[in-house]
Amino acid sequence: ELPMTVRTLSEAMGRPANQIIGTLMKQGVMVRINDALTEELALEVAMELGVELEIKRERDLEDELAAMLSDEYDEGAELEPRPCIVTILGHVDHGKTTMVDKLRSASVAAGEAGGITQHIAAYQVDHGDHRITFVDTPGHAAFGEMRARGANVTDIVVLVVAADDGVMPQTEECISHAKAAGVPIIVALNKMDLEGIDDQKILQQLATRELLPSEWGGDTEVIRTSGETGAGLDELLDTINITSELQELQTNPDRDAVGVCLEAFRDEGRGVISWLIVQKGTLEVGDVILCGSAHGRIRSMFDEHDNEIEAAGPSTPVKVTGLDKVPETGSHFFVLDEIEEAREVAEKRGHTGRSAYLAATARRPQTLEDILD
Ligand code: GTP
Ligand code: MG
């Protein structure tokens, strides 16, 4: 960006440069025709010469995007309750997938259950008056990845701890992630159907990690569950509802959507498929979106059962097609008015290496140290 000079100001005001130089000289400022001027000086000269001068800055789209994420953006808007977004974390083999499958099969038709795609990043379960969105990240690494990008979508973490194994290294990492993200942790003490479980020992382990169980007077809810038999899962859902009610989760559904990309890949037939979760607003087929350094117009949209849908409100996970390339996991998406705007930012990000930097941090295996750096 070029600075304003006496020459460009003279052209803009339609006054000879000498007049500007003379005016400034009277104020004790000595300048030549190619010298740069501050905005302040330019405005003073204009006032002195009786010219109305408006200084326009180049639009900074990145600033406008950041503003779309802020609370101020929705000031005065009518806010509505939104589903709670729950991420399930825990040590390998402690039963996360079995638990989410069980939760899910309880809420979908039996006939449907068999045909569901293997790799699901997020889905919704209705319980009581509430709809709950579960985010099934491939593990704590993905959770950390999103946090590293400032794209934390999680309202509550359910920490799965197998009762026969107890708190393990990855359990501890998950606790750190959740604490750093500042979200409430509900512990699912899992595999309670196994013989010879010493649950007191595990409560003790939790207590020493600053997760004092409520039954011991602390404020961490520990729910005894079995993903295998389904025992305790109703109580787990109840506890999620109570916890989310305290958070008073609400947002503006009537605005251009923003959210986060959970996962994306290239499909032979359909092109780029992106799992997005809407945070604010309503995402619609035909919307122009920017996501990381990818952009495009949403061609089609699918819900978690692969049903084609037209629109998706807050906290809803959707699969969309139409992006020009695979967006970075954990990057924010934005709905914009013009495809040219989206292209401009996407290209800029691609060139300046901003997204290259983000992609590089994402590809690096995430450890606790990375996150706390
Ligand atoms: P990763 O995705 O590899 O981290 O594992 P996970 O946490 O998703 O565990 P997964 O659900 O795959 O379960 C691991 C093993 O534990 C499987 O053999 C399950 O059958 C078994 N398992 C899961 N939940 C329970 C449970 O509640 N009781 C018993 N007895 N076994 C369980
Ligand atoms: Mg699993």
From TrEMBL:
The keyword Cell membrane does not apply. It comes from the Bacteria. Residues 81-250 form the Tr-type G domain. Residues 84-232 are annotated as: G-domain. GO terms for molecular function: GTP binding; GTPase activity; translation initiation factor activity. Its main location: cytoplasm. Keywords: Cytoplasm, GTP-binding, Initiation factor, Nucleotide-binding, Protein biosynthesis. GO terms for cellular component: cytosol. Coiled coil: none annotated. GTP binds at residues 90-97, 136-140, 190-193. It is found in: Cytoplasm. Belongs to the TRAFAC class translation factor GTPase superfamily. Classic translation factor GTPase family. IF-2 subfamily. One of the essential components for the initiation of protein synthesis. Protects formylmethionyl-tRNA from spontaneous hydrolysis and promotes its binding to the 30S ribosomal subunits. Also involved in the hydrolysis of GTP during the formation of the 70S ribosomal complex. This is Translation initiation factor IF-2. It comes from Stratiformator vulcanicus. The chain holds residues 369 to 741 of 964 of the full protein.
